[in-house]
Amino acid sequence: MMTKQEYVESLRKLNMVVYMFGERIESAADHPVIRPSMNSVAATYELAGDPEYEDLMTATSNLTGRKINRFTHIHQSTEDLVKKVKMQRMLGQKTAACFQRCVGMDAGNAVYSTTYEIDRKLGTHYFENFVNFWKAVQDNDWTVDGAMTDPKGNRGLSPSAQEDPDLYLRVVERRADGIVVRGAKAHQTGIVNSHEILVMPTVAMKPEEKDYAVSFAVPVDAEGVFMIYGRQSCDTRKMEEGADIDLGNSQYGGHEALIIFDNVFVPNERIFMNGETEFSGMLVERFASYHRQSYGGCKVGVGDVLIGAAALAADYNGVPKVSHIKDKLIEMTHLNETLYACGIACSAEGARTQSGNYYVNALLANVCKQNITRLPYEIARLAEDIAGGLMVTLPSEQDFRNEKIGPYIEKYFKGDAKIPTENRMRVLRLIENITLGTAAVGYRTESMHGAGSPQAQRIMISRQGNIERKKELAKKLAKIED
Question: What DSSP line would sit under 332-373, residue for residue?
Fold first, then answer.
């Protein structure tokens, strides 16, 4: 397993092509806007080497028998699924940000079981290809970007019906030694901090859409791959000299980007699906369920920090014992633990797949994510309520440090006389960071649209809710005979 510093150095060795604000970045690992998100990923390496967190952060590989980072693990039991959620909550508590390795872990487990079943039915060699690739992931302790979401163009049209066929990533050439692909993947969390890209189709494909039913892996610096960094609220604060208080969370962050695949060659040994449309829906559904489970951990950990920050704000405002403040903190805790309960439940109710790895209870995973699309918004609303309006009208840190006007900020923005004004400013900026600033991308908007937007979960809940069986239960008790 890599250490934190070895991980950072491994990124510096990559020849990634990354654009931000209209210019190519020389070193993503050293860019002030990107560095906090890199720190979040680095924490997954650092904590894996800490004996206190060894049980959660590491596992024994079923492929090599060696000790590995849990983010590269193929789940071997429901206990593994539960530990995954507990690990994610802990990391959310440590970073209050997106730590960006969950998508690759979830993609790996979904591709593992799907390729096994493709091979069993069709006699292909995708499972062998994937196992060999994933052994390399484990041996090198790579961070993998799971790339599923296509730009999609006109949402009312299928991939093959789009005016521009590249709006869903597709195979444009098949050769004896591999394939050439073109297209893009959007909203890619942590891609600039990753080593490898694991591509999957984004929807179930029709028989005539074989070119779009493709799964493969390429290095992030493969020829023809480049990235355009996503813009976030308050992101340029990180570029201000000496910025600290105004960042809210100066050490950790997250990011998303658009990945362009401009005629990228993929060798045969790194192809895991190539036209098998009947299995595209299986892969999409399995990845989505794993990732919907993940949100019952990571968002809860960030929620723990937000609840703590709101409680501190109440202390600093001088109202920790006011009944409605206490009631709001209780409600925030209730909502957060409800999300965690869903994450644990879908893990504990998981089952073994044909390939031997373990899959979550898909119905409960979708219920988990459906709650995630709602409850973090209410937790954030209550935090903003407790924090007060000063959170969004607070002067800048430069003003606070100014020799002439700083003393006025110190005087007039003090809450409880025993608490330094700077402490009050810091906790308000942390709440702003999570609810409105750079971390809001991961805590609020990603809660809504990540791992599929709300209607996607409702469709899955409808499919898996088994209403007919529930009707029979009611008929039996009511003594109704058909």
Answer: HHHHHHHHHHHHHHHHHT-EE-TTS-EE--HHHHHHHHHHHT
Q: Nearest CA to 117 among 281, 270, 269?
A: 281
In what helix (H) or strand (E) does residue 291 lie, and over which residues does it extend?
A: helix 280-317
Verdict on whether the full-model pTM lies above 0.85? yes
Give me Rg for the CA atoms of the chain: 24
CA distance 137 to 253: 24
Length of the chain: 482
Answer whether 114's CB lies under 8 Å from 279's CB. yes
Give CA–CA dist 26/246, Å, rounded.
26
Amino acid, single-letter form, for residue 378: E
Structure token digits, residue 117: 């079943």
CA pair distance 28, 14, nearest whole angstrom = 10
pLDDT in tens, 192-232: 999 999 999 999 999 999 999 999 999 999 999 999 999 99
Active site members: 98, 102, 189, 256, 291, 295, 298, 446
CA distance 19 to 13: 18
DSSP for 142-161, written as a single string: --EEEE-----SSTTS-GGG
Run of H or E residues at 25: none
* Phi then psi dihedrals of residue 202, to 5 deg: -100, -20
